[in-house]
Write a structure and sequence with these properties.
This protein has 287 residues and is mainly alpha-helical. It folds into 2 domains: 144 residues, no CATH class; 87 residues, no CATH class. 53% of the residues lie in helices and 0% in strands. It is built from 10 helices and no strands. The longest helix has 52 residues. The two termini are 55 Å apart.
């Protein structure tokens, strides 16, 4: 646990990132060479000439099969893949039908000021069974259903790859699981220690205020009951001990004065009795 506290305090690594740091260390131990890997430079594009360039021009672009997944299909260079406007309009309509759910009835927007009969709306916009089937394929391949597919796999907390099968009782897998759980237990202990330290500090501060309250009341008596003559800590001490109210010491002095004065006004008999106990009896009536 001392190592984690040192990493948190000396190297300023948040406790919430400790598991990520452990994963990086785990990967570096398995493949130290990756620590020397730098960002690769982009290679120069290959320029084809002659017959090779002509053959390349006849091939369909690599992104041609992705038109079904884009409302406005564009190449990686940002150029439109559908030049004809009428063909692009038909594609947008097909895309809208295939991305619609079965519970939604498609209608033109009111701002378009377009009148359509029920038959026209059913034929032109409403999806067919084919559209629903293609839409399901689109969602599975590239939509919300494709978020955990192979192209988007991520390392989990044990440096494994999601979506990949493995032997659960393998020694290496068990070792990683134990390392993860040991770190989680250590982090929980550190968090508990921090919470306990804050509680002890708070209790000590309240005890100090509690002990200083009689002196604060005596000062208030000597100042003729003028709350504005007290320090912020003295106002908090009186409110905590005699009115069972914890005031926020970070407030402005004027706000604390108003809060304490409200407590005194609500229970005017409390402080005179305290003055009798804390100060000389002859001065008790001064408050």
């Amino acid at each position: 646990m001392d190592r984690f506290e040192a990493t948190n305090s000396e190297h300023h690594v948040p406790l919430g990132d400790m598991q990520n740091l452990r994963l990086c260390v785990e990967c570096a131990r398995e493949e130290p060479g990756q620590l020397e890997v730098t960002v690769p430079f982009a290679p120069s594009p290959l320029v084809l000439e002659g017959a090779a360039a002509a053959a390349q021009a006849k091939l369909p672009p690599l992104a041609a099969g992705l038109t079904s997944f884009m409302l406005i299909p564009k190449t990686p260079q940002g150029e439109s893949m559908i030049k004809d406007k009428a063909e692009l309009f038909d594609h947008v309509v097909r895309y809208t039908r295939r991305t619609a759910t079965e519970t939604v009835a498609l209608r033109p927007g009111n701002y378009l000021n377009v009148e359509m009969s029920e038959d026209q709306a059913r034929i032109i916009l409403n999806p067919t069974q084919r559209d629903y089937g293609l839409g399901a394929i689109m969602r599975s391949a590239g939509g919300s259903g494709g978020s955990i597919s192979l192209p988007k796999r991520k390392l989990d907390a044990m440096a494994g790859i999601r979506g990949q099968s493995g032997i659960m009782n393998d020694k290496e897998h068990i070792r990683k699981m134990r390392a993860q759980l040991d770190l989680a237990q250590s982090l929980a202990a550190v968090k508990h220690a921090e919470v306990e330290a804050k509680r002890v500090k708070k209790d000590a501060a309240e005890a100090e205020l509690f002990d200083s309250a009689p002196g604060a009341v005596a000062k208030l008596r000597s100042k003729g009951g003028d709350v504005s003559k007290l320090f912020k800590a003295e106002m908090c001490a009186i409110a905590l001990r005699y009115f069972a109210t914890a005031l926020n010491a970070t407030l402005k002095a004027a706000d604390l004065e108003s809060a304490l004065q409200a407590l005194i006004t609500a229970k005017p008999a409390v402080l005179p009795a305290v003055v009798v106990e804390a100060g000389p009896p002859t001065n008790a009536a001064a408050l």
